[in-house]
Every structure is written in C-alpha cells, then in structure tokens.
Amino acid sequence: MSTQVLDARKIDGEPFGDIMAALSELEEGETLELVNSFEPEPLYEVLGNRGFDHETEQIAEDEWHIRISHA
Predict the structure, then answer these.
(1) What is the pTM of this model?
(2) Which domains does the chain have, with CATH numbers?
C-alpha cells in the first residue's frame, strides 16, 4: 500500500482544491497523508460524502496528520 503526502502548510492560499485534486488521483488501496497546521474539521464531512475514511493524529500543537483512504 503506497502513501502520497500532501503538506498543506506549504500551499499558498486555500488548500481545498489541492486536497481534492490529490484525492481524485488516489488509487484504491493508496493513502493520502495530509499534513496541516490545524485539525481540518470541515473537511471530514466532505471526505465522508465522497466515500473516504480518515484517521487523524495530532503530532504537535501546530501539526496534524490526516490519513485518508477510500472507504
């Protein structure tokens, strides 16, 4: 199982489009690891509506890792 990493902290501006583009390229069995500076709670409903599961881990006060895969 391969993992793609997207560090949203390095995106200039709103990262939503970049996240959705990365998810559209995600193959069955692959995982997208999203790195963010905060917990992206509004994203969770969007993920669920689009058929993705997620697992969130807080690494530091300003670092969150969200592992996203097909449900």
Answers:
(1) 0.93
(2) 3-70 (3.30.110)
